[in-house]
Write the structure tokens for this entry.
Amino acid sequence: MKKSSRTGWHRGITMICWVFAVNSQANDQYNRGADYARQIQNQGTAAMQAFKPNEVLLHYNAETPEKNHYGGVTAPRADLVEQGNAALTGSEVGKAITASLLNNPKEKLSMEAPFISVGREAQNTAEQVTDGRFDGCQMQRVSHTEFTQHVCNRDTRVEQTCSRKATLTGEWTNRVKVVTRSYNLENLPFYHKDENTHTVITPDVTGDIIEAGYRYENWYSNAELTVNLLGTSFIYRTWGSVNQPFWPTVTALQAGKPF
């Protein structure tokens, strides 16, 4: 039996954190290296900016006709076909190339050329290497392993189900026993907790609860108590006599397990 009430309290915990700062000083070797890097960091850029190709390269000409062949990485593709044909027919170099092609006939390949004669000789003497008659050839036993991959049209793991009808025979009876238990709260142990009175009921049977009820006699007093029994609450009035059923939320009991 439980009389409803509620109290609460709070507890606070204060945490203190320490933060440590550590200062590290660079060593002398790092300082010397950093100073040297600062001294030479602009020497490469300065050398490129001060370079004058007309003073260094012999016969340097910055305004050649080929300058228009390249318009930069973002420029569209230059049409070199027309410019190449014009250079081939109009420039001195192009004329010399054309005259050389016309005046010098094609040379026939000689079968005695080294790159041909060596290959033909290897072809003619290949049998001496493959027939096993030369001194360096020895019979050897060779073990050969070959791995192949096959694809099956059907899975190697096949699961099938089958059904079979069965009939139970024999005699059986339903072993259901209905028992009734009554508990007098005056004879049971109890304790007080959080301004509530708790009574401990320990059943001696196990099973489902079919029906439940409570009963009390007239105490000749004027008081109301909230009772919580098997998960169900109801009002207990001390005046008058009551004997009525109720529907508990807990629908099963276990022997030796108190509630």
